[in-house]
Amino acid sequence: EAQVTQNPRYLITVTGKKLTVTCSQNMNHEYMSWYRQDPGLGLRQIYYSMNVEVTDKGDVPEGYKVSRKEKRNFPLILESPSPNQTSLYFCASSPLVAGKLFFGSGTQLSVL
Amino acid sequence: DAKTTQPNSMESNEEEPVHLPCNHSTISGTDYIHWYRQLPSQGPEYVIHGLTSNVNNRMASLAIAEDRKSSTLILHRATLRDAAVYYCISDSGGYQKVTFGIGTKLQVIP
Question: CA-nearest residue of chain A to B101?
């Protein structure tokens, strides 16, 4: 089944403790992206990647890192999480040209 | 990618048609118009997209204004399962930097 898989689904952590949220897609898509969703602010793009080893900043990249070493994986790294990064995170992938975006089920992160 | 504007919320009665508007006045000639929806506790899902002509699929229809500065997503018969947040976005074909915004929260009244 074609899908975007995010893990974990829920995560509670403390300020400053490094964490990684994984994202994997099995559709051979070139494009992958991370979003955060906060009440009243909609979905905001954090980082995106057009292909392996190609990443770029979205609208809210501060405090986040990404890497794209393989086509199928696009992990989101929070080196030193802070409470303002408490949010619902979504990973998405798409074929490059005029394709649909496929979203993962989301990761609810709470930073205490 | 052009900025889009949508009403924050709309209501519809069940089994009636729903017209969800979107303004994208700064859209360029090569930007596609996409609609996604997000059901409660789920990630967004694709609904429909188009460039110039009106488009139909099993989920909905997309009516694009002749000047392409606005579009309307049409749900022909709203059901309770259509209650969701609907997002209109535009992109040049590569989703490079895509902003979803707040979308339109559709409430369907039984």
Answer: A42
Residue B89 CB neighbour total at 10 angstroms: 26
| pLDDT number for residue B29 | 79
Query: What is the percent of chain A where pLDDT is above 70?
Result: 97
Residue A95: count of CB within 10 angstroms of its CB: 16
Q: Which residues of A touch B62 (CB under 8 A)?
A: none
How many beta carbons lie within 10 A of that of residue A75, not counting itself?
17
CB–CB contact A104 B93 (8 Å): no
Query: How close A66 comes to chain B (CA, Å)?
Result: 16
Q: Is the CB of residue B110 less than 8 Å away from at least one CB of chain A?
A: no
Q: What is the pLDDT of residues A12-32, one digit of tens each?
A: 999 999 999 999 999 999 999
Distance separating alpha carbons of residues A27 and A30, to the nearest angstrom: 9
CA distances to A3, B89, B103, B104 from B4, rounded to whole Å, are: 28, 6, 9, 12
User: What confidence tier does A97 reach under pLDDT thresholds 50, 70, 90?
Assistant: low
DSSP bridge pairs for B64: B71
